[in-house]
């Protein structure tokens, strides 16, 4: 069975697991007492590079890299992600670290709070502000979601370096087809029930976007109320929430090899913000959202209160693919059979903020 690296970002540090199936060994916490909101695993190089966005209450936010699977870490002398003085803005948090696809082998994107996009052309060593998005005429009207105003999702097209899609809380989806030179809102069909106009051009509270494995133009979106699919790269969205116990949630993740397969963790949308029905269940579609099935074998069967956040649901790139999620109870669950059954692999952690996994070949 393929060995997998499992990276778990928590409110008080990073845990790194190595294992397969139900057998795991963890090290950490790395960056103790720092909140780890973003993790990237760059598998485009001979040895995977780990990128971690960590927040220190004393030193502030920073981006760390490791080329030896976490045995050692590098932090640049100057901050890797830093707003130019001309913006009059300072970095609060790095919400996303996304290695781009094979069409852009050295490019890594960082999504930040305040809502901005940064680009690295050297594998994440240094980043520069994507000024075209920062200067977009709608940006000053973006609001802050409950977690803050942030670019929290970056999706890149594996076929070309020109197409980049980002999600902003609370600004909606924006898409570039010219490598980031210009951006257009891409929210047609996505509802913003909290606004006077429920279908505005922008201003939706998008929680997460995932890209289909077989068709890069097919995207899945978990909204603040609503689960959607786009078949044209975000140009238009249609609801695929029917069959789910709730259409609210934070995370959505797509299978790395099988088209039409995606996963969500439904949450009640009322003030309780608890798992739907107070049940710990992941839902899977294998037909691009036409139908959904609950996955709960091996998960707690009684009342459960562990909420899964936007970046805490992920898959590895093995075959069969492993599925992982962490929750605010400090539990991490893993499935080695694409969600059919689950094992508890870590517990009693601080709040789990993000999860990433990748197979380790050789």
Number of strands: 27
Largest sheet: 4 strands, antiparallel
What are the segments in which pLDDT stays under 50 over at least 5 consecutive residues?
Answer: none
Helical proportion, percent range:
under 10%
**Terminal Cα span:** 12 Å
Named CATH architecture: 7 Propeller
**What is the name of the CATH class?**
Mainly Beta
How many structural domains are formed by the residues?
A: 1
CATH topology assignment: Methylamine Dehydrogenase, Chain H
Secondary structural class: mainly beta
Task: Determine the mean pLDDT.
Answer: 95
State which percent range the strand residues make up.
35-45%
N-to-C order of helices and strands: EEEEEEEEEEHEEEEEEEEEEEEEEEEE
Q: Identify the overall geometry.
A: globular
Question: What are the SSEs and their pairings?
Answer:
Elements: E1 4-10, E2 13-20, E3 23-30, E4 34-42, E5 49-56, E6 60-66, E7 93-99, E8 108-113, E9 116-120, E10 128-129, H1 131-134, E11 150-156, E12 164-169, E13 172-176, E14 184-185, E15 206-211, E16 219-223, E17 227-230, E18 238-239, E19 252-254, E20 262-264, E21 282-285, E22 293-295, E23 313-315, E24 323-326, E25 332-335, E26 343-346, E27 352-359
Antiparallel strand pairs: 1-2, 1-27, 2-3, 4-5, 5-6, 7-8, 8-9, 9-10, 11-12, 12-13, 13-14, 15-16, 16-17, 17-18, 19-20, 20-21, 21-22, 23-24, 24-25, 25-26
